[in-house]
Amino acid sequence: MSTNCCAVVAALTLAVTSPLAVAAVYKCTDASGKTTYQAQPCPEASAGAPLKVDAQPAPKPAGPARPAPPARLTPNPGWDVMTLDGEVAPPAAPAPALESRTATAPERVQAPLLRLSFDLLSTDGRRLPWTNAGPKGGNPQAGQVRDGAMNVEEGGPVALDATGREAYTFGGNGSHLVWMPRGLGGPQQELTLPARLPRMSWASTIAWDTRAGVLAFASGRGDGYFYRYDTRRHAWLGAVPLRNRNLVALASDAANGSFFGITDQLELVSYDAQGQEQRMVPLAGVLPPHARTMAGSLDATLHLTVRDGVAAIVKISRAKVTHIWTYAMASGIAQLTYKD
Description:
Elements: E1 5-7, E2 20-21, E3 26-29, E4 35-38, E5 56-57, E6 117-121, E7 127-131, E8 134-135, E9 158-160, E10 167-171, E11 176-180, E12 189-191, E13 205-209, E14 214-218, E15 225-230, E16 235-241, E17 247-253, E18 258-263, E19 267-271, E20 277-282, H1 289-295, E21 301-307, E22 310-317, E23 320-328, E24 333-339
Antiparallel strand pairs: 1-3, 2-5, 3-4, 6-7, 7-8, 9-10, 10-11, 11-12, 13-14, 14-15, 15-16, 17-18, 18-19, 19-20, 21-22, 22-23, 23-24
Region (Disordered): 48-78
Domain DUF4124: 13-65
Signal peptide: 1-23
């Protein structure tokens, strides 16, 4: 008798066209009693009865591929963007909020990329040292900052020289220029426009380039002029139409004798030394939406400082600084650098 006992597991062979087929498996036991299962007959196999195993579906012959069902579009009230292959896809991610000419400046305070120092005026005519990151010394002087609005409480916008001994402002609701040769609180003298220049009306913003000795101010509400006055010779230099721009803030850049203004539409406009408009940059897409509202607000005013291509836009409300935005003209980057 053989030392290798074998049990044969066989399956009936079915036609290829049959949906089911039975596989053949051989159960073999060697002399040591170890059992194995294999596809080939055991050595010295005997004609044992076959063992039937679970039937598996035979693979169907490959046929032509069926077309995929059409894509189903699901309505979405938030967006509805379809790609070229018929699939619905979300819109592209928005541009970074900070470093973009068309991006909105964030509402959180950031350290300024570019530093700028300037002075604000107090309600009693003192100079208050500030930077675009906040007040020097840490005291914001809340309730003491002159906002420059044309009202009785604050006294209207003022241009003061470096020594504080000479100043200019407006009288008659912006209908004439006033010279104060001994500074704020001293005697006043009304300066009469020559007949060759257009009549002043609603003058509301003023800047003094003390290095060049040129005073500039804007009048009108949409149909005004950009006036220039020589503070050394006390002579009028001229007036240029503002092209329907209503300036709410004005600053001088003594480095090159130019001037910059902000309109009630939140546009930054540059002027050369003769008052001719050079460039306009819309800031509505750079500063927060509420900045445009405040540009024409009666409850808040804007103070502008410009130096070497950097602008500090200061919001003053109820005699205190509430916001400072810093705008770099070369890069178009705007930052909120101070908030109270």
